[in-house]
């Protein structure tokens, strides 16, 4: 049992166990002889029953009993009394086995099989279940069996609801009773055709569960049921497109020059990208699948719709994702002409894009932008490294006001005239629950109450529209998570991550807020009046990234001096060229897996993290690309980097992250993994690397 310390067996106990094991082996040997020879005599049946009473998990014995039942029924006189007697004997065998172990899968399955034959009385079953549920009210086997028996008896959902209410009245901590209640109500809600009827049921349930929460605010059972009710109140609707790049209505100028000196990223409308890989990013409010050339159509003079392949940006190699990317080939555009080419993208006009719960993208979206190509210039021979020191950045507010358009925030909503679908009942319900939880926290310092309030407040801010950027309650929510980190240190990382997500929503809540963290980089020599635009979210105590739908346009990002242990979601930032992750808490190269999807990335700093300090993260070998799996796209170059190279074996995780990148600058100093052998490995996997930890590799 859980929580019981193990003690060394006494000599007499060990001897008794050995004798018991010997008898069990002899009984098992005798039983197997009966089974192999298809002997179903009373003696054989008694042996199997005795064996199951000692070991109810012996599936072979249960299967033997099924064969024996079929044999006995066939050999009987076929009278109802005789057949019933055979099945009643089986129920007794199962009951004896359950007394030995009332959580035996095999025993419960066999009892279901007996009853499904329709020859046994059901009157005794609920009484038996009452005994088992009194012995262990959270025995999910018994609860599953109860639902099975209730269906056979034709008991009404209302009667079963009353049963759960009685159990909860006796013990508010009966989590299984709460869970069964949610399953029963789910069936009722499915049958209610009128929305008002469902709302009345849910409102009454809120009143019911609040009694439990006020009685014992620290008991989690009622809170989990309350969370389920909130989910019913705000059921996920059809998926929506909440962000995209390019931004609808934007006029873009593309250059094939990828050097910062040649093209300094100083304007939102001008950027450098490999011309054959012009990214179009679609960001949905929930995971969707079915994004392809049939459900998304592209009209342009330089690309055919069927030539665009849409890919989910998912490190799990899933067919579904919140973020999808398609690449347009601009290499055929006339670079000597300043003519703009219109690109129109339509989705949602045909069914096929759907969420994991089967809901279709019901609102059609039409996105359009223009693109023109700058002439390809001879790239500069200068080799300039990016330095992330504070004095390299300067404020340029007037320039930024023009460079970063407001369309980053409301482009899709304005373009498609989205109308909120939140009902007055939903708004009223969430407001009432916020009030109730506030009242509860006034008399109790409940941790889970604080978590619930934080979630409710953020839901309230986001309720008017999926594009809403207001963070009215952000400061209060940040305070709640700060309190929780002190109250519950064992879960401080979870609270810190949730706090980080709220903080990012606040920092990126409006164009005006965003501009406070945008600077021009002055560390390169360029013909441009202004240097590259860098979004600096450094030194913000961020442990987890979010709000990527507001960051699709970013090409230079500083996340240094934070507490990041993961960069999950960063794969959405397809334009990213320069990234500073220095002085964070990244523990392994596995944590950098999203970088594999950033094909435009040239400059990366992961200096002064914890890579190599901890034991190897083996999750890659079970769920991602590895020598032992077939999930990753592994492309070997036998001439330059043969697969039997020992460095690949020693630094497999680093190889998988870096192999598809074209980095020209990498800073990795200050990590435990860094040594001369590893540094000599990096230029082999990154052949275009020019600067490593500040040193020019071409001058060494």
TrEMBL record:
Statement: the UniProt record of this protein carries the keyword DNA repair: no
Assigned GO CC terms: Rab-protein geranylgeranyltransferase complex
PANTHER family: GERANYLGERANYL TRANSFERASE TYPE-2 SUBUNIT ALPHA, PROTEIN FARNESYLTRANSFERASE ALPHA SUBUNIT/RAB GERANYLGERANYL TRANSFERASE ALPHA SUBUNIT
Protein name (Swiss-Prot/TrEMBL): Geranylgeranyl transferase type-2 subunit alpha
GO molecular function: Rab geranylgeranyltransferase activity
Top-rank taxon: Eukaryota
Enzyme class (EC, first level): transferase
Family stated for the protein in its record: Belongs to the protein prenyltransferase subunit alpha family.
InterPro entries hit by this protein: Leu-rich_rpt (IPR001611), LRR_dom_sf (IPR032675), Prenyl_trans_a (IPR002088)
Highest classification ranks of the organism: Eukaryota, Viridiplantae, Streptophyta, Embryophyta, Tracheophyta
């Amino acid at each position: 049992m859980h929580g019981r310390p193990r003690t060394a067996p006494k000599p007499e106990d060990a001897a008794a166990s050995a004798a018991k094991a010997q008898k069990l082996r002899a009984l098992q040997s005798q039983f197997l002889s009966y089974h192999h020879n298809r002997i179903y005599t009373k003696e054989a049946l008694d042996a199997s029953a005795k064996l199951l009473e000692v070991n109810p998990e012996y599936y072979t014995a249960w299967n033997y009993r099924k064969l024996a039942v079929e044999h006995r029924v066939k050999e009987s006189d076929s009278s109802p009394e005789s057949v019933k007697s055979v099945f009643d004997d089986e129920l007794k065998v199962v009951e004896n086995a359950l007394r030995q172990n009332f959580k035996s899968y095999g025993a419960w399955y066999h009892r279901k099989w007996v009853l499904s034959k329709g020859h046994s009385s059901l009157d005794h079953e609920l009484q038996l279940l009452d005994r088992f549920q009194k012995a262990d009210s959270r025995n999910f086997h018994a609860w599953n069996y109860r639902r099975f028996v209730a269906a056979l008896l034709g008991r009404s959902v209302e009667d079963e609801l009353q049963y759960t209410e009685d159990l909860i009245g006796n013990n508010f901590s009966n989590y299984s009773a709460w869970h069964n209640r949610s399953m029963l109500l789910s069936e009722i809600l499915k049958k209610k055709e009128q929305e008002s009827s469902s709302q009345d049921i849910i409102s009454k349930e809120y009143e019911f569960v609040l009694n439990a929460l006020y009685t014992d605010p620290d008991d989690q059972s009622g809170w989990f049921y309350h969370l389920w009710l909130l989910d019913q109140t705000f059921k996920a609707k059809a998926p929506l497109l909440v962000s995209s790049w390019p931004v609808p209505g934007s006029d873009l100028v593309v250059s094939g020059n990828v050097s910062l000196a040649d093209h300094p990223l100083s304007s939102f409308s001008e950027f450098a990208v490999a011309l054959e890989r012009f990214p179009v990013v679609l960001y949905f409010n929930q995971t969707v699948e079915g994004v392809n050339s049939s459900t998304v159509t592209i009209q342009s003079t330089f690309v055919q719709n069927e030539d665009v392949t849409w890919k989910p940006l998912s490190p799990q190699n899933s067919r579904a994702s919140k973020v999808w990317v398609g690449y347009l080939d601009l290499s055929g555009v006339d670079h000597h002409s300043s003519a703009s080419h219109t690109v129109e993208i339509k989705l949602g006009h045909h069914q096929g894009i759907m969420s994991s719960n089967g809901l279709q993208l019901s609102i059609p979206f039409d996105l359009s932008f223009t693109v023109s190509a700058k002439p390809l210039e001879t790239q500069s021979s200068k080799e300039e490294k990016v330095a992330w020191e504070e004095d390299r950045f300067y404020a340029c507010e007037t320039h930024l006001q023009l460079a970063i358009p407001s369309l980053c925030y409301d482009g899709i909503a304005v373009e498609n005239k989205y109308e909120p679908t939140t009902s007055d009942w939903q708004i009223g319900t969430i407001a009432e629950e916020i009030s109730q939880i506030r009242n509860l926290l006034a008399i109790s310092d409940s941790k889970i109450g604080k978590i619930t309030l934080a979630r409710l407040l953020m839901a309230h801010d986001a309720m008017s529209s999926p594009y809403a950027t207001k963070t009215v309650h952000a400061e209060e929510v940040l305070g709640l998570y700060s309190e929780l980190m002190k109250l519950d240190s064992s879960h401080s990382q979870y609270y810190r991550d949730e706090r980080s997500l709220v903080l990012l929503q606040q920092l990126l809540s409006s164009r005006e807020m965003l501009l406070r963290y945008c600077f021009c980089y002055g560390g390169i020599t360029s013909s441009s009046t202004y240097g590259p635009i860098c979004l600096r979210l450094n030194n913000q105590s961020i442990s987890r990234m979010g709000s990527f739908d507001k960051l699709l346009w970013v090409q230079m990002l500083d996340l240094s001096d934070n507490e990041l242990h993961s960069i999950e979601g960063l794969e959405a930032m397809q334009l990213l060229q320069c990234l500073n992750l220095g002085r964070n808490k990244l523990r392994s190269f596995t944590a950098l897996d999203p970088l594999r999807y950033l094909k435009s990335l040239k400059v990366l700093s992961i200096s002064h993290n914890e890579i190599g300090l901890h034991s190897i993260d083996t999750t890659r070998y079970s769920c991602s690309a590895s020598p032992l799996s077939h999930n990753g796209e592994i492309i070997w170059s036998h001439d330059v980097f043969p697969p039997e190279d020992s460095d690949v074996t020693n630094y497999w995780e680093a190889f998988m992250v870096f192999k598809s990148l074209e980095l020209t600058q990498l800073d990795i100093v200050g990590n435990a993994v860094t040594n001369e052998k590893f540094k000599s490995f990096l230029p082999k996997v990154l052949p275009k690397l020019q600067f490593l930890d500040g040193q020019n590799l071409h001058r060494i």
